[in-house]
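haha ok so turns out i had the wrong file open the whole time. this is the CORRECT one, sorry everyone. sequence first:
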Amino acid sequence: MKPSVGAAAAVALWGPAAVVSASVVSMDVMRTSEMHRGLSKRSTFVETLANNITGGAYYIDVTVGTPGTPARMVLDTGSSDAWIVSHTADLCTSRSLQVIHGDTCATTYDSAKSSSYSLQAADGFSIRYLDGSRAKGDYIKEDFTIGGTTIRSMQMGLAKETVRGTGILGVGFSTHVAAPEQYPNIMDELVRQGLIPAKVYSLWLNDRRSPSGRILFGGVDTQKFIGTLGVLPLIPDVSTGSITSFTVRMSSMSIEFSNKTVSEVPARNASGVPALLDSGTTLSYLPASMAEKVFRLTSAYTDTRPAGTGLTFVDCKLLDSERGLNMIFSFRSPGMNGAAEETTTIRVPAHEMVLDVIRGELEDLVPQDMPFPPRNTCLLGIQSTSGFASVASGLAESDWTLLGDTFLRSAYVVYGIDHRQVGLAQANLNATESKVVELSNSTATGLPRLTGLASQAPGTGTDGKPPATGTDAASKPNGAVRAARGSGGDMFAVLAVSGLFASLGGAFMAF
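then structure:
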């Protein structure tokens, strides 16, 4: 059946997974809070430690093989390969490795128990992520069931060597897979096998204290966002000159304080900075010049000790003294039919950027000479890309932005691979209703500029009512945002982070 962009069906999305229609696959995206991975004084990159502290992993539950074996996978928009963990993986069978890496195997797969398994390339799978984690093993083909929909004979990695006990589901461009030769990834297979009409999906993570969000393959839920869905063109990667990642141009950023004064955080380049939207990364990263301005405005403190964390912290009192603080991210896009440029803005409230997660043994990891005591220390949801400069060949100034979960929880994002576009709007937090629009594979017209709710649904937002943002016409302030301390479950979570920024040319992906 050919889907119609204009045809919308109201549906209730309950339970862990549901097929919304013949052409839209929907399922829960769950947030882990397990006390699982160990901590180190200094990781190769600070994101590893940040992920452990904040509990930022978002995962989905799938089944692999015939009969289906349950598998838990971290959802990652910043990478392209799917891989699962073998029951014979070194981490799963070695207690010493579990101690070293501070992880165990959650769910594993045994090819001998599946009638649909086929070996594609023995020892052909090898991937490494920017945080230093890696996985190696075979490429296999296997039946893969997601949201009640089965993809037949999908290629994926089967990790026999890994430092993480949870696989990753990369939903990026297949041009960026780890294999020497490109192969169809999950998005390609969903379309090729007629399960969705176009390589497009939408992601709603919900707020930080919510246990789950929702992902829709092939559709958009207009009950999950506020205002008009801004449509942003993807931009070419810096090193390749091609579009192989969900990178858009962020035109500006500002901070609005409780008294409604606004301080601009200008980009070094007047045209803005490239920004990767990456659900596989917990925090958000700004170019050093922008990050330093944010740090000054929030009286933040960066741990620069040789054996320190490398992270930037703030006084938790901001959650009380600046309850109405919002960090405002702006993105410009061409207007429709030759109209003037449009600006899409996403407002991120204080409770999403001031993370009260430093407790217990974590207090020993932070500097003791900060201007605020360790017990009052919060992790700032924005960090500097300067920590990546030493490895970002060709980008010594680190003049790029990575927008991870601290940003994405406040946004509703439509990832249009076929359309080479991203749809962006303010998230309608804790929504309980759905109205799903199937998306066509038409690349001539691009993603539709759909309209969501006029404002935050009454009684659904846990931290006040973010304004309808979308495009300029819907960008009126709407009062203060009430911030509150996070729960203890925010600490110590498993996160298989990609941290991949494709504009770096994939230098940290495939080995």
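Confidence is low (pLDDT under 50) at residues 1-20, 34-55, 389-396, 462-511.
again sry for the mixup
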